[in-house]
Specification:
alpha/beta; Aspartate Aminotransferase, domain 1; seven-stranded mixed sheet; four-stranded mixed sheet; 13 helices; 15 strands; binds pyridoxal-5'-phosphate
């Protein structure tokens, strides 16, 4: 154990060990690569944790932040008019596709979801919320309550009355072998049953990730969200799309992950990549809903001048370089390696890919059960070969990859080669 790791363990919780037995100290980065304290360089196919959407040390972002610092104005986001904040809100409102959209800035995805839940429960006058099994929305009091992926078990009390929907989780024996159409029908019937129960006439919203991030990059079948939305609309229930991982064109199928489902949400929550490493998050919602927040909607640092300088530069870069098309163009390269991996060894279960989000399930070769131990072994093997990847899934057996959106074809091929080698 390194000296820094020992000091970390003495004074901080040991979450780091969820990933690596001996965590790395990152001391530098450029593009898709980072360097550790021993001078070793790695391709980062987790982009921080999808935080460094453009990679590391991006001149446009660095210079925008430096320009802001040079003005001397580094302060709260709530007391004064901030030009960069208004400009960013205008861009996000326009990109959201939500009619009359307004934007509320936070510092993180957790706060963004907490705000969206507040917005929906206040607007509808109900603490009842629909959430998806295997979901992840944060670890605060409200967000942990709607987190289906090991969230609730850790919490003693729920501030919300939550009903979990199957959606992306097709593991129940009743669903095995079902066609997508039959599955959607079953899920919609389940939703109707939930809404028909005596305790659930006034459900406020459904919160869902179009691509479940921590859950292992799992997606519902096409058509499921549209079917859900039809039922929700009948009841006036709001739909919150958590785009903290799936936004900005990463899926290659739309600027937001929800786009390919043909559904316009009532609110979108975002964070992670927008600041390219600088902390920013927020909610974009229908103006009438957002106006209900006026007395509660204050966050001292949410949308502060540094964060919005970084976010404006990052978003402009994404749009100017059309990174959505870039993700779509690179997707076949991912498939070329990923598809043959599935079934290539008894230890490889399903593989999933959506643009530049892709995953490999590791399973026990003898039993076929999800194997977190094997996933950890591959994570370490990839690191030894110069590739950093993520882990996740309900049982911690899913290898997750989401390289910076600026990754080029050569870097992608190199990383995929290493992955295949580490898995094999
Ligand atoms: N929502 C999703 C889909 C996430 O993946 C995460 C973090 O991983 C969050 C919310 C919480 O965001 P943050 O860690 O910025 O609070």
């Amino acid at each position: 154990m390194s000296e820094l790791h020992q000091r970390h363990r003495a004074v901080m919780p040991s979450w780091l060990s969820l990933y690596y037995d001996s965590p790395i100290e990152i001391t530098g980065g450029k593009g898709a690569r980072v360097t550790d304290a021993d001078g070793r360089t790695y391709l980062d196919f987790f982009a921080g944790i999808l935080t460094n959407m453009l990679g590391y040390d991006v001149a446009e972002v660095r210079e925008a932040v430096e320009r802001q610092i040079a003005t001397g104005v580094v302060h709260t986001s709530t007391l004064y008019l901030l030009r960069g904040q208004v400009e960013l809100a205008e861009k996000l409102a326009r990109l959201s596709g939500i009619p009359d959209a307004k934007v509320f800035f936070t510092n993180s995805g957790t706060e963004a979801n907490e705000t969206a839940l507040l917005l929906a429960t206040c607007a509808r006058g109900s603490d009842q919320v629909l959430a998806m099994r295997n979901s992840y929305h944060g670890r605060s009091f409200g967000t942990v309550a709607v987190t289906g992926n090991r969230g609730w078990k850790n919490s003693a009390l729920s501030p919300l009355n939550v009903h979990y929907l199957h959606g992306t989780d097709r593991s129940a024996p009743a669903f095995r072998g079902m066609s997508d159409a039959a599955y959607i029908e079953a899920c919609t019937a389940d939703l109707r049953d939930v809404l028909a129960t005596a305790t659930a006439p006034d459900v406020s919203c459904l919160i869902a990730e179009p691509v479940q991030g921590v859950g292992g990059f799992t997606m519902p079948p096409p058509g499921l969200f549209a079917a859900y939305k039809e039922v929700l609309d009948e009841h006036g229930i709001l739909f919150v799309s958590d785009e903290v991982q799936s936004g900005w064109g990463r899926t290659g199928t739309g600027f937001w992950g929800i786009d390919e489902h043909g559904v316009t949400p009532d609110a979108i929550t975002f964070a992670k990549g927008l600041g390219n490493g600088f902390a920013i998050g927020g909610v974009i919602a229908r103006g009438d809903l957002m106006d209900g927040l006026t007395t509660n909607g204050v966050s001292t640092f949410g949308g502060n001048p540094i964060a919005t300088a970084a976010a404006n530069a990052t978003l402009d870069y994404v749009l100017d370089h059309d990174l959505l098309s870039h993700a779509a163009a690179l997707a076949p390269l991912v498939g070329e390696v990923l598809d043959p991996l599935a079934g290539s060894a008894a230890s490889v279960g399903a593989v999933r890919a959506k643009g530049l989000m892709f995953a490999v399930d590791m399973v026990d070769p003898a039993t076929g059960a999800d194997s977190p131990a094997l996933a950890s072994r591959v994570l370490e093997a990839a690191r030894e070969r110069g590739l950093l990847i993520g882990k996740g899934g309900l049982h911690g057996n899913v290898l997750r990859m989401a390289p910076p959106l600026t990754v080029d074809a050569e870097e992608l091929r190199e990383g995929m080669r290493i992955l295949a080698d580490a898995v094999g």
